Amino acid sequence: MFKFITTQEKLTELTPYFKDAQIKTKPSSKGTYVSFTALVMVVSADEIIERYKSLSHIEGLISL
Q1: What's the CA dihedral at 23, 40, 18, 21 to 10 degrees?
Q2: pTM above threshold 0.90
C-alpha cells in the first residue's frame, strides 16, 4: 500500500504511476489537499523503494 498527500493539481501527475493499482482518494476537510492511497501487490521491498524514488520529482508530494 502506498499513501500520499498532495494537491488536486498534482493528483493527475501521480495517478499514471499506479495504473496497476486500486486507488482511493479523499479530500481534506478544507479541500486544500487530497489523500491518495494505492493498493498494489509487490514482490520485494526493492519494488516499493523504486516506486517511491520514481515519484520523488513531484514537487509538494508528501509520502506516508
Answers
A1: -50
A2: no
